[in-house]
């Protein structure tokens, strides 16, 4: 979230006339983020978030709208898009696709505690449970096929040791997942880091930023969460946060035997997914705007920990 397309009060006041949300009181640009333009909008009746889409495939936006509508209808803590007086959510403003959302309460947890891990685990388990019935479809853009096609683009920027590490890992994943029986699939968030959640104390106010959402292995989504939420600064898994999150998750959707077998390797594959994607941003495909990219070293460290130490035992 950031401001790449400036808007003034008159533009937004006119935009709001399409909705039954009240009159504009204040407009505030949101400086953080990497891809889209975001404003906090306060009316005399509501607190809202306005997003203009700057990058990506705009043809995929209806998938995200339908997914958020579906999850909101199932009472998941997500920002269901605000629909205009004609029942349409996806709009255009300043020549960009635009969506209006309710502003959810809370802040990003920098160091999540056990209660917050339990809340997130339960919500993700519910999301995956109901998401298996979501009829929309978008292929996972960062799955094994992407790893196979993309990893060679960064090898020339790595040390010989890291070249071998990355190439060997991708070969291993292909051997493990390439011909394996299908794991449970459904709608996933695809990028559920701490900064894509909002907490008011220990209460989960919302799960946000679904623009990596897709149809994929549920275990892929869960492994992304564990690698971020339960990893210490040195990359090691914290048993307390790990067990709190996974126990709460399985209270809503127990893992299958096939998922339990695949779990250690899925942790490794999702760690490499972020190591690779961050390397690509630095060396191959920098963002359109001048922003500080995330450090790839974080997920190289996590990957090496998962290889050396394996996974913690899964809660029953």
From TrEMBL:
The UniProt record lists the keyword Kinase: yes
Query: What keywords is this UniProt entry annotated with?
Result: Amino-acid biosynthesis, ATP-binding, Kinase, Nucleotide-binding, Threonine biosynthesis, Transferase
Which sequence ranges are marked TM in the entry? none
Domain Aminoglycoside phosphotransferase, by residue range, is 27-254
User: What is an example of a Pfam family matching this protein?
Assistant: APH
User: Is Ion transport tagged as a keyword?
Assistant: no
Q: Which reaction does it catalyse?
A: L-homoserine + ATP = O-phospho-L-homoserine + ADP + H(+)
- Its EC number(s): 2.7.1.39
Example GO molecular function term?
homoserine kinase activity
Instruction: Give the record's pathway.
Output: Amino-acid biosynthesis; L-threonine biosynthesis; L-threonine from L-aspartate: step 4/5
Q: What family does the entry list? A: Belongs to the pseudomonas-type ThrB family.
Identify this protein by name: Homoserine kinase
The gene behind this protein is thrB
């Amino acid at each position: 979230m950031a401001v790449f397309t400036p808007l003034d009060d008159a533009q937004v006041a006119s935009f709001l006339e399409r909705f039954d949300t009240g009159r504009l009181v204040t407009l505030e640009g949101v400086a953080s983020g990497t891809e889209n333009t975001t404003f906090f909008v306060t009316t005399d009746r509501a607190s809202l978030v306005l997003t203009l889409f700057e990058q990506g495939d705009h043809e995929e936006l209806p998938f995200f709208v339908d997914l958020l509508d579906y999850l909101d209808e199932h009472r998941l803590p997500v920002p269901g898009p605000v629909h205009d007086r004609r029942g349409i959510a996806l709009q255009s403003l300043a020549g960009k696709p635009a969506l209006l959302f309710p502003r959810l309460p809370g802040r990003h947890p920098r160091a999540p505690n056990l209660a917050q891990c339990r809340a997130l685990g339960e919500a993700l388990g519910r999301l995956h449970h109901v998401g298996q019935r979501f009829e929309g479809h978008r292929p996972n853009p960062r799955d094994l096929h992407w790893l196979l096609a993309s990893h060679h683009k960064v090898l020339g920027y790595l040390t010989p040791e890291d070249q071998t590490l990355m190439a060997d890992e991708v070969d291993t994943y292909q051997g493990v997942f390439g011909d394996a029986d299908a794991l449970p699939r459904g709608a996933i968030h695809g990028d559920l880091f701490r900064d894509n959640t909002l907490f008011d104390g220990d209460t989960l106010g919302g799960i946000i930023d679904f623009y990596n959402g897709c149809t994929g292995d549920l275990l892929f989504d869960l492994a992304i969460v564990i690698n971020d939420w339960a990893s210490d600064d040195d990359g090691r898994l914290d048993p307390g946060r790990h067990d709190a999150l996974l126990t709460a998750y399985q209270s809503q959707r127990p893992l299958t035997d096939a998922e339990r077998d695949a779990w250690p390797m899925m942790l490794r594959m999702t760690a490499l997914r972020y190591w690779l994607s961050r390397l690509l941003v630095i060396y191959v495909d920098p963002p359109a705007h001048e922003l500080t990219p995330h450090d790839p070293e974080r997920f190289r460290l996590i990957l090496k920990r998962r290889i050396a130490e394996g996974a913690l035992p899964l809660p029953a």
